[in-house]
Specification:
This protein is 82% helix and 0% strand. It is mostly helical and 280 residues long.
Length: 280
């Protein structure tokens, strides 16, 4: 049953998102081609020289490059904002709005309903991040930047530098990615919990959901600040020491708190929607 719920969720949430993702890739490709036609980015960035007229371009091409650059950046913002809005509104309308009367009569546990939306939302967040990365690769390839980068930069040195940075903060690159994924899941769960809390109100439910989310974030910030003070590491945060060991402890503790909030938030959301559901 969970598989059927996931299939339904992906189908219902994909209509707007795929359009934005495709648009970002196309704009990245066009932006890169225009840059390549007008400038040789490899020569400009790595040798300091330009070809075929250098930077002396006409007004039309200047306007075109500026417009494509602005559209590209706006699409990146739009992708993350729209993905978040779709995640929030899908849960709110489907679970707490008019569609809730149908959803909660299905022969499915409330926890499975929440889990299906959580998995779908998490996947869309990952897809959004992957699309942005792919668009930068497309931009780099179509503009010639990546080709020049491969010829002029020793990636082994870059990897050694990254490994050194991660070793200083007591974690690996894979561990850092895992922490980001945990943070993403926790954030989505807190969206759901906030809406479940706001649903208890008889009026202005969405407003109370927003206030609940703000309140949860304030409590979370207070906990992290208190931890920093107890650890006596405030001076390190202000840059009074080059010892980065505090950062690893800080990140792991923050992640641990997010895990607790995520797991606790999931069960509390399930309880509120199972026992305190108010669709009036």
């Amino acid at each position: 049953m969970l598989g059927k719920l996931l299939k339904y969720e992906f189908k219902s949430t994909s209509r707007v998102l795929w359009f934005l993702y495709a648009g970002l890739i196309v704009v990245a490709l066009l932006f890169g081609i225009v840059l390549r036609v007008e400038f040789n980015l490899g020569d400009i960035l790595f040798t300091g020289t330009a070809v075929e007229g250098g930077l002396d371009t006409n007004i039309f091409m200047t306007i075109l490059m500026s417009a494509l650059g602005i559209i590209y950046m706006l699409l990146i913002y739009a992708i993350f904002i729209t993905t978040t809005v779709v995640i929030v509104m899908r849960f709110y309308k489907n679970m707490l709005g008019g569609e809730g009367y149908l959803m909660h009569t299905l022969p499915v546990k409330t926890s499975n309903l929440i889990l299906s939306k959580l998995i779908t939302a998490f996947c869309w967040m990952l897809i959004a991040g992957a699309v942005v990365v792919i668009s930068t690769i497309v931009l780099g390839l179509s503009s010639g930047f990546i080709t020049a980068l491969l010829k002029n930069v020793d990636f082994r040195e870059i990897m050694r530098g990254l490994n050194y940075i991660f070793s200083q903060i007591g974690m690996s690159g894979w561990t850092f990615m895992l922490l980001i994924l945990i943070s993403t899941i926790s954030t989505i769960v807190l969206y759901y919990l906030s809406m479940a809390i706001g649903n208890i109100a008889n009026n202005h439910k969405f407003l109370f959901s927003v206030l609940a989310y703000v309140g949860i974030q304030i409590v979370f910030s207070i906990i992290l600040t208190a931890f920093s003070v107890v650890m006596g590491r405030t001076g390190y945060l202000l840059g009074t020491s080059y010892d980065m060991s505090w950062f690893s402890n800080y990140i792991w503790t923050m992640t641990g708190i997010q895990v607790v909030l995520g797991v606790g938030g999931f069960f509390l959301t399930n309880y509120l929607l199972s026992k305190k559901l108010n669709l009036a």
